[in-house]
Amino acid sequence: MTFLTTGIIMGIAGTVAMDLWALILRTTLNMPLPNWGNVGRWVANLPTLFHDDIGAVPKVQNETAIGWAFHYAVGIVYGVFFVWIAGADWVAAPTFVPLWIFGLITISAGWFLLQPGMGLGWALSKTPNPTKGRVMGLIAHTVFSVGMWMPVVILG
């Protein structure tokens, strides 16, 4: 398997794991699912990066589909980028800790670009409970890391 294929598989698997985690939280704790429509609206309005309130921005056609596509595209980019920086030695003998650290670092894009871009503040600072959102994000990115690691371990 090529590095590109490995990275794509890792990114998709990590993103699926994160989505399954969100469904588990919805089912067990009645937590809301991510609003991929708002993410799609933000993407559709690029190059404007920062909005006071993405909910006040006019809706765009297919914004939910755009959000979902962006979500998976970002996961794939992270998977490919990780394989590229980790190299052949890691792919041959994948260990979890480097991937977990990478997964935790990836939350910075959400905290310092996406969330403030949608009007939620830096690292959710404008939300009712920023600490809860930050902790849940770190857990979700840990799940993302596990999801990325599993196919490399299984497919060897």
Question: What would you say this structure looks like, in words?
Answer:
This protein is mostly helical and 156 residues long. The protein has one domain (3-155). The chain is built from six helices and no strands. The protein has helices at residues 3-29, 36-44, 63-92, 96-105, 107-117, 130-155. The longest helix is centred in the middle third of the chain and has 30 residues, at 63-92. The radius of gyration is 16 Å and the shape is globular.
Task: Give the helices and strands, then pairings.
Elements: H1 3-29, H2 36-44, H3 63-92, H4 96-105, H5 107-117, H6 130-155
- How far is it from the N-terminal to the C-terminal residue, by CA? 10 Å
Proportion of β residues?
under 5%
User: Taking Cα atoms only, what radius of gyration do you get, to the nearest Å?
Assistant: 16 Å
- Helix-and-strand structural type: mainly alpha
Helix and strand run = HHHHHH
The total beta strand count reads 0
Write down the domain tally. 1
Q: Can you give the mean pLDDT?
A: 97
The helical percent reads over 70%
Instruction: Please describe the biggest sheet, giving its number of strands, its sense, and whether it closes into a barrel.
Output: none
Low-confidence stretches: none
Apparent shape: globular
- Chain oligomer state: single chain
Number of helices: 6
Put the structure in a nutshell.
The chain has 156 residues and is mainly alpha-helical. The protein has helices at 3-29, 36-44, 63-92, 96-105, 107-117, 130-155.
